[in-house]
Design brief:
321 residues; mainly alpha; hpI Integrase, Chain A; 54% helix
């Protein structure tokens, strides 16, 4: 083996997905490559969860395709059983199956380009079996839409094909920005693009202490707010601004892109739109604050600051399930 093969299962996953990344390329250029950054993160996330399962079984290489197939069967059985017990929807199970299909492609592509004498991974029949079982055992949706948050915002964002809209949606979901904060004000006479002036570098999350990208935006009432997003999303924003100079789009086109993705992932509800992503952010951020030792009022206050609200009562409309 002339090429360098990582020893860690997780590093191996990064290696095989690197070989199928086709970010920014058209479907004509690459039919099966991963052209969306958001989709790539969703697919890799599921592969890493499978890797944790494989590690518990004592595995040390994802190129041992027979072992991967056996572990995948056990993993899917465990996931399906869990979702049945928790009365989850089949949407989540179908996302897993789709991600593992891309995982199979990535492994086989890696084997092919490195001329490895290794049996190809064949899991289509296995995945189709679990797809059929999920349709029988799980309901279509596990949640009545009693608030504006999306049931699966990560899957929604991965389904947005336009790079600009997908980046805007990622910023709203991860950092709690308003549409005007990501350069898509609902008032067409108002221009408020996000530029490099809003980049505040990499810092520490005030709640978790982990590394985050800090994005400053001027939103409601001219209030400047610092938002905390994942480092990969922050780097994407840096690259985008370096290439285009500013992040902005037409509000109605942006909302339409979100609605289209919501319909494609069975999450559409009238009135949800882009604001649903802020509801997702606020609910998840509030719970994160509680998890890290804040009381109810402290968690509301922190969430309120990051959603550019002046009063805690306003934040309650977001965090209420």
């Amino acid at each position: 083996m002339k090429h360098r093969w990582p020893t860690s299962l997780h590093s191996q996953i990064e290696a095989i997905y690197h070989s199928v990344r086709s970010i920014g390329k058209s479907k004509m250029d690459t039919d099966k490559g991963i052209r969306s950054f958001g989709s790539c993160e969703v697919y890799k996330g599921e592969a890493h969860r499978l890797a944790k399962f494989m590690h518990k079984n004592g595995r040390n290489s994802i190129l041992e395709t027979l072992s991967v197939q056996n572990d995948m069967a056990e993993y899917l059985e465990e996931r399906l059983t869990h979702y049945v017990e928790k009365k989850r929807s089949r949407q989540t199970m179908e996302t897993i199956l789709s991600a593992l299909g891309k995982f199979e492609y990535a492994i086989n592509h890696y084997i092919e380009i490195h001329a490895q004498e290794i049996p190809r991974l064949e899991t289509e029949k296995l995945r189709m079996k679990f797809y059929a079982r999920s349709r029988k055992l799980l309901r279509k949706s596990s949640k009545i839409f009693d608030n504006r948050a999306y049931p699966d915002p990560v899957r929604l964002i991965a389904a947005i094909s336009d790079g600009t809209f997908q980046l805007q949606a990622s910023l709203q979901y991860e950092g709690g920005l308003r549409t005007e904060g990501v350069g898509a004000p609902s008032n067409r006479r108002l221009k408020n693009p996000l530029t490099s002036n809003g980049l505040r570098g990499i810092g520490n999350d005030p709640v978790t202490g982990s590394a985050v990208g800090i994005v400053s935006s001027v939103e409601k009432g001219g209030k400047e707010t610092e938002h905390f997003v994942s480092v990969p999303t922050y780097r994407r924003l840096e690259e985008y601004l370096d290439r285009h100079g500013k992040l902005e789009s037409d509000y109605f086109a942006y909302v339409e892109a979100i609605n289209t993705a919501a319909k494609a992932t069975s999450q559409y509800a009238p009135g949800r739109g882009s604001h649903g992503l802020k509801h997702n952010f606020a609910q998840e951020r509030y719970l994160e604050c509680i998890k890290h030792g804040m009381n109810h009022e402290q968690a509301l206050q922190q969430t309120s600051l990051e959603t550019s609200h002046f009063r805690l009562r306003e934040t309650l409309t977001y965090t209420r399930g």
